[in-house]
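Subject: Sanity check before I submit

Could someone independently write out the structure tokens for this chain? I want to compare against mine line by line before I put it in a report. The sequence has 698 residues.
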Amino acid sequence: MTERVQRLRRPIGFFAVLTLALGVTAFITRDQWLWSVQSDSVEFEVPEAPELEVETPDERLFRIDIEQSLATYRVAERLVGNENVAEGSTSAIAGDIIINTADTSASTVGTIVINVETFTSDSSLRDKRLRHDYLESNHFRFVEFSTTEIGGLPDQIVEGTPYELTLTGDLTVKETTAPVTFTGPATLQGDTLTASMTATIELATFDAGPISIAGLATSGETADLVFDLVAVSDADAPEIDDITVDPEITDDDPNSSFSAAVQPVLEQNCASCHVAGGPGHATFALETAGDAAEVASGLKLVTESRYMPGWLASDESVPFHDDRSLSADELAAIADWADAGGTLDVPADTPIIPSEQILADVRRDIVMRGEPYAGDPEVPDDYNCQVYDPQITETSYVTRFEFEPDQKEVVHHAVVFLATANMADEAAARDAETEAPGWTCYGLADLNSTDEGARVDQVMGWAPGLQPAVMPEGSGLKMEPGDFLVVQLHLHYDHEAPLDSSAMVLQMATEEELADGPLDSVVTTRYLGPAEIPCVEGDPNPLCDRELAYANVIERFGAFAGAIPLGLNRLCGVTPEDFAHMNQGTASSSCDLNVTRPGEIVSLLGHMHELGSWMRMTLNPGTPEERILLDIPVWSFEWQLTYSPVESIVLDGDDVIRLECGWDRSLQPGADLGYVMWAEGTGDEMCYSTISTRTPAE
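---
Independent answer below. Compare away.
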């Protein structure tokens, strides 16, 4: 079959969920995990601060000495259940100070500049997380403090005497400037001025926290920023060139357990995703022994906490294929190696080779590319739909398919739908509403035709790290003449909105595969439960009033979004009053749902947002046939997977699926969310699952 490349006619989408229906590996949010095993190489760039000039004989200029000064942050942290204070420092700090010996009130503290990209703590994982997600130091390398007022200066400075000073001014972090006051002692001794000044800042003020990584770490709402300064009279800041903060990697330790105990674990459980050719290679690489040694302590942390490899299902679930959870012995091997210093007994450039290749190939029978689209950087989350029309003229089956993002830095996720031919006119009308390609879409791609037989089904989802969707042998995604795909792109803009033209690649069943007749059909069914999470008692946020919160959902996402919480509550036989007592920070819901599409289970998926705490799917609860299909005792927004049962489990029309979801507001400390209900935004919530089933050909 020859490749067919088509420029699309344009857009479509569903709930802004990060789901995948037919894949078999991680469905992950790239921006939230990119930091974890990236190279730790950071350029040590000395910041340039505005230079002050002496104008009278009574003024003395002091310049911060980078070799003797430090900027330090301290923040309360709960790391894998343990309370401690995280501390990171950098000597990349610069600034000038002028002391007027005749009139101390005329003294000046110039702008102090810090290179925050070089903050280093006892955890490389923490450092990367701060740099990438919270300080965004790849875009905003420097933090500045500009003093507007100095308090506590004596009328006359006595050398060797410490004076308790206050420096009031403006702190700029990323794109936010806010007032901050530093306090602490300062001492003049000869040609040297020393000071230790501390300010307590609200992390949320500067969009730098609080930090919350489900299953791994949370932080307090405030942090201390400390300047330990040594400024030398008439001294230029030392020039430091070509310095990095890479840890030294040794590969000559004969007592290291790396090659015998650790490398096999990485090759069996990690390398398939994170070496060249793996689905996770675009976001981080774990290609050599040196890569592993560089983050040895971090590998111990994320494996012991079971944050990685991403596998949320507990042993109460049915057995699944591709179980990546580590055994107690494997966890101990990594921990012992890291505790011994993470040294190597092989050269640092020794390749880490995956034990098996899991990335599926997709024959490029049909390639469809969207019309170039760019949103507005002032609207950071853009949901755009386009029609991807494979121009099917006879009953056909898609056996493998893959979404190919164009602008990977802004394509956050994609959801793909199959729409029937009699919805084409409605899709064209939606597309014509604006000059830009496609339309803004929520719900079932915002296509709501009532024509007989009109249908929109979710068929797959994509997020960084997801491999192509592969139908079980002898089955496929059935498409009738005129059926088309609708791709909803969630585009997340940081600073720019480049033109995106992402593609869908389809592998179609061959004549040989169809020689014995039609293939079995794989379909995906959503099983949804209510999401109603009242505020903690006493919360003053006006949106804690459910009526106001409900109106806010409609204002943000339209009338269809408002119908969802009402419909789910009615479907599951509950009202908002049933959740009113859940006002201490946690909430949960349960709903029994009839199986609507019988067949053999191909895969299971659960989905919630960042308040998600736990989830469970149970088949025929309370009966002798009860089975827990999927149990996730500790939910993580960052690791969303599909799970494929090892054994054959066949659903029929008399079966019931119980979907249960739990939420915990403490997972997002400092978030002022109001009453949370089912809606599209990351700050909203869902109780969402899918079951993909295989049904015999008719």
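---
OP: Matches mine. For the report I'm noting this point. The chain has a mean pLDDT of 84.
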